[in-house]
Amino acid sequence: PLQMKKTAFTLLLFIALTLTTSPLVNGSEKSEEINEKDLRKKSELQGTALGNLKQIYYYNEKAKTENKESHDQFLQHTILFKGFFTDHSWYNDLLVDFDSKDIVDKYKGKKVDLYGAYYGYQCAGGTPNKTACMYGGVTLHDNNRLTEEKKVPINLWLDGKQNTVPLETVKTNKKNVTVQELDLQARRYLQEKYNLYNSDVFDGKVQRGLIVFHTSTEPSVNYDLFGAQGQYSNTLLRIYRDNKTISSENMHIDIYLYTSY
Fold this sequence. Notes:
By secondary structure, the protein is α+β, with helices and mostly antiparallel strands.
């Protein structure tokens, strides 16, 4: 009996260790067939775009705040948050741009939380030189708070080989969260760990990549990591204009990176 207890304890310890050290969702099973060649190559991006992507995802601070409310607009598909920045050296206001008036109607005049990447260069609208722009990044404030912070598990494959990603990498306190909030955190990690948006000269080995946001109940959302349009933030960040939100419950992220040219 002692031997059985010892074996059972060892097994339980093994399971406990496995659960705490490897937040893998599907083991090493890939949840979709990825054709690497369908993904855009880093070399297809202009140097300016690559540099700006690195700036956006790694260096730039993000607009993060809770419980804001605004009825103000510049155009009908925008919401203008006056006095959003309290101690920014340049900006006072934040102009949030969406791809439809329907999205605006959902959030205008309501208590909202914001989390997104903002920019000033080529920001059109509001008080010139005092307004920063952002695409999406808005969720309703009321009844959207988790009782405890959600740490989102990430599966990452580098050239088909699974790599462990710390469970602390992407987290949120929202039940319903914008994909932008999760994507900004994930890509910051990819830049820090894999030099995602570095040129080849500066040890940027990754040539193609895909990030996929999975939930158990909704269609997955994916972005080609080098599929950005244009060269500057006003087009590079436009992928977030749909303000896509997903349930943080039972969700995980799959990332596929490739180093071959």
